[in-house]
TrEMBL record:
The lineage of its organism: Bacteria, Pseudomonadati, Thermodesulfobacteriota, Desulfuromonadia, Geobacterales. This is histidine kinase. GO terms for molecular function: phosphorelay sensor kinase activity. It is an enzyme of class 2 (transferase). Its EC number is 2.7.13.3. The keyword Nucleotide-binding does not apply.
Length: 289
């Protein structure tokens, strides 16, 4: 069986031997152009690295979807039975807090399965008109209880924000993952800011977008989440959306990957501003009608 390295070299050779190179029949390149290395072709080792990365992402996607499907079914049963048991007990029963803890843990596990489904793109729903402001307000209200007491949360929602066409579940995952990432970046104390906005933006606005391809000029709504955490250096920032990459002890490396997948599928963009000691701000842009 041919090795991946040999296959890479065959692919590379097919573009350099016995084939008509791009620009054949045109004027020969200038000496200056000939002096430059051929940037259109990758070295075999680099090509192999990229192909291995593609294989890795594909394998992780399949694994995530499979685990998420089974985990989601299990969590539905566990959460449902815990809720019934909780309702059957007296409100002041000593076991109430333990049931509440178990129910909270099952909800967190269900949230993890939704992140994995978003990453594997198997959790598709019907596209509908979505009020992003309403989703932000509802999810923040639910998340407040799980945040550390020393964390302050400020919210600024654009009152004239137009609805967008999107999958409501994916938008919920986008919000929850961005806020969860911000909360995990903080210690016992800190601040999180969440805001929404809308505007006609030129393509140049997305020059530093973390999503490819970068969108053209148009009208976009955005959600911005900032934290006062420790921030990231350049190397860490470059990998922040990579699958299974996390610098946090409790991190799983799926949250921001899911955010990236959701925004990419929408045709949007992501801008991230971070530096050591200066916190992190992530702004996700979504096309608006």
């Amino acid at each position: 069986m041919m090795s991946l390295r040999d296959w890479c070299r065959d692919i590379l050779a097919s573009h350099t031997e016995g084939s008509c190179p791009a620009g054949a029949g045109k004027d020969p390149p200038s000496p200056a152009a000939e002096a430059k290395p051929n940037e259109a072709l990758l070295a075999p080792d680099e090509l192999e690295k990229q192909l291995l990365q593609v294989q890795k992402l594909a394998a992780v996607g399949v694994l995530a979807g499979s685990i998420a499907h089974d985990l989601n079914n299990l969590m539905m049963g566990i959460s449902g039975n815990l809720e019934l048991l909780r309702q059957a007990k007296e409100p002041d029963a000593a076991s109430q807090k333990y049931m509440d803890n178990a129910l909270d843990a099952s909800r967190r596990a269900a949230n993890l399965s939704r992140q994995m489904l978003a990453f594997s793109r198997k959790g598709s729903q019907e596209v509908k008109s979505v009020d992003l402001n309403r989703l932000v307000a509802e999810n923040l209200e639910l998340m407040k209880g799980s945040m550390r007491k020393g964390i302050s949360l400020s919210v600024r929602l654009e009152p004239e924000l137009p609805p967008i066409e999107a999958e409501p579940g994916k938008m919920q995952q986008l919000i929850v993952n961005l806020v969860t990432n911000a909360a995990e970046a903080l210690g016992e104390t800190g601040a999180i800011g969440v805001s929404t906005g809308v505007g006609e933006l030129p393509a140049a606005e997305f020059t530093w977008s973390r999503v490819e391809p970068k969108p053209a000029s148009g009208r976009f709504v955005f959600i911005e989440v900032s934290d006062s955490g420790c921030g990231m250096d350049g190397e860490t920032s470059d990998r922040m959306f990579d699958p299974l990459f996390s610098t946090k002890a409790a991190g799983r490396g799926l949250g921001l990957t899911a955010v990236h997948a959701i925004v990419k599928a929408s045709g949007g963009a992501i801008l991230a501003d971070t530096a050591p000691g200066e916190g992190t701000t992530i702004r996700a842009f979504l096309p608006a009608p």
